[in-house]
Amino acid sequence: PETYRMLCLNGAEVALLGYNTPLLLDEAPALAHLRMFHNHLPMQAGAYQNTLWIGAAAKAGLEDGQALIGGSCIIAPTGEIAAQAMSLDDEVIVHRADLDLIETCRKVNFNFALYRRPDQYKRIADPV
């Protein structure tokens, strides 16, 4: 969450990132059906809380014997997935990002920036 917050505080409107997440975790096969949901959830929350567009490019398919999750997506400042890759093959996704939506969301979403309490962050900011 700190990455998205710092980008927003520094004036970013768009965050681009890449990831290569395993498709399955041997330690928790019962949770396999939640893998893509959990993959997208922090990005959607980051987009919503910081009113950012997020473009996330994922590796997909098989690499070194490991299946990768794929699921590249573009997430709107509303937290909605605006476009998403749907296969484990090479795929290009496109979405026209309306940058004016950022200002609209900043007016109607809960204003996380207004209610920041940096004085309360010391414990999480100090090394463990």
What's the CATH topology name? Nitrilase/N-carbamoyl-D-aminoacid amidohydrolase
Which spans of ≥5 residues are poorly predicted at pLDDT below 50?
none
Give me the strand/helix succession: HEHEEEEEHH
Looking at the chains present, what oligomeric state does this protein adopt? single chain
State the distance separating the first and last CA atoms.
18 Å
The amount of beta strand, in percent, is 15-25%
Main sheet: strand order? 1-2-5-6
Please name the CATH architecture.
Answer: 4-Layer Sandwich
Describe the structure.
The protein is built from 4 helices and 6 strands; from the N terminus they run αβαβββββαα. The protein is α+β, with helices and mostly antiparallel strands and about 130 residues long. The protein has a single domain (about 1-125), classed as Carbon-nitrogen hydrolase (Nitrilase/N-carbamoyl-D-aminoacid amidohydrolase). A 4-stranded mixed β-sheet has the order 1-2-5-6, covered by helices on one side. A two-stranded antiparallel ribbon has the order 3-4. It is globular. The chain starts with a helix and ends with a helix. The model has no long low-confidence stretch (mean pLDDT about 90).
